[in-house]
Write a structure and sequence with these properties.
The chain has 270 residues and is α/β, with parallel strands linked by helices. 29% of the residues lie in helices and 20% in strands. It has three domains: 86 residues; 117 residues, Metallo-beta-lactamase, Chain A, CATH 3.60.15.10; 35 residues, no CATH class. The chain has ten helices and twelve strands. It has a seven-stranded mixed β-sheet. It has a three-stranded parallel β-sheet with strand order 1-2-3, covered by helices on one side. Strands 7-8 form a two-stranded antiparallel ribbon. Strand 7 and strand 8 form a beta hairpin. Helix 1 packs across helix 3 and helix 9 packs parallel to helix 10. The longest helix is centred in the first third of the chain and has 12 residues.
Amino acid sequence: MMDCGEGAQRNFVEFGLGLNKTTSILITHLHGDHVNGLLGLLQTMSMSQRTRALTLVAPGGLARWMKDTMRVMNIGLTFDIEFVQARPGVVLRRGSYKVRCARATHSVDAWSYLFEETPRPGVFDSRKAVSLGIPEGKKWSALQHGRPVVVGGKKVHPREVLGQTRAGRKIGYSGDTRPSSTIARLFAGADVVVFDSTFATRDADKAKERMHSTAAEAATLAKRAGVKKLVLTHFSARYRNVSGLVKEAAAIFPGSVAAYDGMVIEVPSA
């Protein structure tokens, strides 16, 4: 989960995300619209008798804010929190994915994140396996998971029966930021990028002053980074209709869409 604004616990329940599942929450920066829902979500998890530890990646100040607020409000949790301070590079590793982090350019300490799946083995060639005399069953499974097997005294390596390794999916999330070469490098080749698009081009001066991006700037970065799909978000309330911002972005990067609550995007595997 990337950022946790006000009302997050309601949406978490509404969309059936599971309050006791293995969870990592990544916070980009300590502005209220990105973090004010965190304590409410954690309390809702506790009320559901969550027992699994939760991983929280965030700027260092968040740990102090949580400690002080929980002490003043007498909040106790039924589970442990593993706090990881945001820093450049890989901040989280799991069996099937990792998360990389790069500094964003905003008015406070801020970070952008990239979720990156572990590359998957190539397609298993059953005909080749049969021709090598490998019996179907556990040895096929071992080869499909990248482990060599022994058949008739001869070692067979996965590369002999697997196609080319398939790249994992990559999803980027900017948080609030000005566009930068650092973030463009982080998001290079991503399948989906969710990017700050607070302002229209006519308000570009406000974007610079307030350290946000325009929709056109988000699209320019997406094009530069070679991403496949751009999701515009964090629109200023001054725009009653965001279709104009989407139009500005799409003129530069055709794969641009506007985010909305409950939006679901299918990201096919390679």
